[in-house]
Amino acid sequence: MDEPPLTSLSVTHISYDASDPVAYLCAWLALAPQILCVVYTTLIWSSREIEVFLMFAGQMGCEGLNFLLKRMIRGERPPRIKAKGYGMPSSHAQFLAFFSVYLSLFLLFRHSPHPSNTHTPTTVNERLLLAAWSCIFAATVCASRVYLQYHTVNQVLVGCFVGALTAIAWFGVTTIARRYGWIQWALESREMMLLRVRDLVVEEDLAESGWERWKNVSQRRHLDLINRTSAKTKQR
Predict the structure, then answer these.
(1) Closest Cα to residue 106, out of 35, 172, 179?
(2) Is the separation of the CB atoms in 171 and 57 below 8 Å?
(3) Which of 36, 31, 53 is nearest to 44 (CA)?
């Protein structure tokens, strides 16, 4: 009895010219969507922020749209690379375009952190710089797909257009949901409360969440330590 043929899991399988250092860097850049998915999952689990979940939901919706478009258009990849699947539009370009555009919209139009006793929030210029960095990173990943010849320029440009358009549309949907109180209604549901889902990152930096409370706890512990040390000294 013949054994069934084996196939490879091609999620991280990248073909590149080993003698070309630029191609080597591009091969690593091809892992950007997988890395960002890990970042999404980590932030959702650690911060329980509804905004992160909304962004990730839109990101997955964008991926589903790419899956449908590829099977509708059936555009072939460049002939040099024998990669599986269709090439139009580029899923990498669409993924990174959604990520960078949605993040930029959030930083510039929704995120308005307030100062606290222990933290000065990021300024508009700093948020603008972060948004620009995300767009540059997305453009670099898109260029790497053309350099490795996994996609044509047109496939990458269409992917960027669809990803950016999807990000703008999803940002609009979430803005309406916030304006009409649907997000707050969802947060007050029993399931969301059990999962400890919150909505703080709109008004404070993610790194600041819980920091001021920790500083108060730390100061109390420090005072308790001083009091215990003083008590032991007096007993002697």
Answers:
(1) 172
(2) no
(3) 53
> Other CB atoms closer than 10 Å to residue 15's CB: what's the count?
14
Rounded to a whole number of angstroms, the distance between the first and last alpha carbons of the chain is: 85
CA-wise closest residue to 144 among 21, 26, 13:
26
Closest Cα partner for 158 from 142, 175, 141?
142
In degrees and rounded to multiples of 5, residue 174 shows phi and psi of -70, -30
d(CA 160, CA 167): 10
Task: State whether residue 30 is helix, strand or coil.
Answer: coil
Which segments of the chain have a pLDDT < 70? 1-3, 6-12, 81-83, 115-121, 206-213, 231-236
The one-letter code for the residue type at 21 is: P
Cα dihedral 26, 161, 87, 34 sign? positive
**So what's the pLDDT on residue 136?**
93
- Reduced to 3 states (helix: H, G, I; strand: E, B; else coil), residue 5 is coil
Residue 171: CA count within 13 A, CB half-sphere:
20
Ranges of beta strands (E only) in the chain are none
| Beta-carbon count within 10 A of 44 CB | 17
How far, rounded to the nearest angstrom, does the alpha carbon of residue 60 sit from its chain's CA centroid? 11
What is d(CA 92, CA 151) in angstroms, rounded to the nearest whole number? Answer: 10
d(CA 45, CA 28): 26
What is the spatial distance between Cα 216 and Cα 34, in angstroms, rounded to a whole number? 38
Q: What is the pLDDT of residue 157?
A: 93
